[in-house]
Amino acid sequence: MKRIALLVLWFFTVGLMAQEAPNEVAEAVAAEAQAQAQASKESKAAPGIDLNAEYEQVQADIETTSKRVDELEASWEKTQSEMSRDLLQQQAVADTLTMTQRVDAFLGHVEASTVPEERQLGVDVVRAENRFFQSRLELASSGLRKLFEQYEQADGEKQLLILLNIDDFYSYINWLLMERQKNLELLQGWKLDTAKEQRKLNREVTRYAEFMAIYLRTSTRQKELLQREIKTLPAESRSAFEGKVATQDRLVRSAVSNLKEVLVLMEQQGLPVEEYNELIFKTTGNLAEAVVSIGAMRTVLSGLWDDSLNWLKTNLGGILSRLVLFAALMGVAVFISRLVRRGIERAVTHRKAHFSTLVQDFFITVGGNLVVIIGLLFALAQVGLDLTPVLTGLGVAGIVIGFALQDTLSNFASGMMILIYRPFDVGDYVEAGGVAGKVGKMSLVNTTIRTFDNQVFMVPNAKIWGETIKNITSERIRRVDLVFGVAYTDNVEQVEQILEEIVTKHPSVLKTPEHVIRLHVLNESSVDFIVRPWVKTDDYWDVYWDITREVKVRFDQEGITIPFPQRELHVHTITPPPQLPDEPVSLQRSDTGLRAAGEGEDGTL
């Protein structure tokens, strides 16, 4: 890369070293001045301004600035401090800007005049400024070449400082080229023939763009080589190369940015830029980075199509062979997975294994899928895919998915706990998660329960594990708990005998453990007996219903009363009060108060 960059820079520098002939368009200037003298009246510049004196001053400023900048650039070459170099470069730019402002002010005064001699002064100043710009371009290209040499020899932080100086030189060179173009446009506005000068500037700009294109390709290639080298290194040795890759990427992006500025100038001059736009697109992968135009877009798309065809021609055989290899390896992985599943199934279903159905299904599924995943990773590695970023990406994605699927992971963890502690198995009747029924199947996330009325519920494992689990059929035998009440007037011994006969005669009642029949509670309206026979779990409901029916039938036959809640209503007759007299009683006022008519003083009638 270093040799290529030096060769291109030398080529670019030689192209800039050609000097302009100071009087190459003198005849054109004289002819233009004569035509203006005949076509218009003589007019003076702005009042109070002596253009001849100002011309001498501007020429002196150009010469002084040239010497000043030469001294600064000589100091720049001697110093080894990148910070000092940056300050010297900034000072040179500031001096140059001050000079151009002085020249622009003088040219503004010249444009206000129509006197041919005064216009000739402006032409001389413009050409002197262009000679200054060209000498600065030669020195800037030489300085840029030295910066690239120092960049190749520097390490780490020093490379970053040199990159900053390189960016400054990029901007400085672009500005000088643009100023030369502006001066040519000014001369064209004065009706001077600048075709030869324009062609020369176009060649210099094109050489500069070619140099930047070659340097961009070389820098991009070096960055790609560093990236490939990193992939072959162990993780602990990658940090140093990662820093180099970052610095090289910074250099590439800087070169792209500078080339884009050069292409803007080339478009203004009407020069072709499609090839360079295609290079920018290939380097960045972003069409918006290029100087967009219809022609540029057509060239980029055409180049992309051609590159795609060339890539297919070159790599089609390798792609097909890799696809065949990948398919073959995955087929082998699936075949081995089936064998593993069968082996695990035989192991977990052995009569001595004592694994539940849930655990058996879990081991069979996980074992087979694990073989397929390992086979997939192996196949990807064999076709040339680097698994390190893939596994890293999966780790990061796992963290993100873990936060997003906390409830699902909670169900997963609960499913693992259910598999480990085995509170129920497939086919058991349970009451869990607010649902009662038969366990149909279970995954690590949820459990399917079919209720007694044939409804299917998928209950999250976290809900099941977080609540009480009642397994109705986990044991081989169960006790049937029955309670029967009789009236207080019935004979206790007779009732016990009837219940004993009913229980002992039922074929599904087990002899061991022994059943229990006891008088249990003297209730408010009944005498309650408990009947507790032991049966097989599968016979539970049949025995429950058979004994209940048989007790009712025998009690009716034996005249045993089964009390039930009753309400008695007692009606009491109430004697009505005596009748009041039919005639109304009149009241008379006396000294002692109100009294009924006919009532004496003592209150008697």
Automatic annotation (TrEMBL):
Residues annotated as signal peptide: 1-18
A GO term from the CC aspect: plasma membrane
Naturally occurring in which organism (per UniProt): Ferrimonas balearica (strain DSM 9799 / CCM 4581 / KCTC 23876 / PAT)
Listed transmembrane segments: 319-340, 361-381
Protein name: Small-conductance mechanosensitive channel
Phylogenetic lineage: Bacteria, Pseudomonadati, Pseudomonadota, Gammaproteobacteria, Alteromonadales
Chief location category: membrane
Superkingdom, natural source: Bacteria
The Mechanosensitive ion channel MscS domain, residue ranges: 407-473
Pfam families: MS_channel_1st, MS_channel_2nd, MS_channel_3rd
Subunit structure: Homoheptamer.
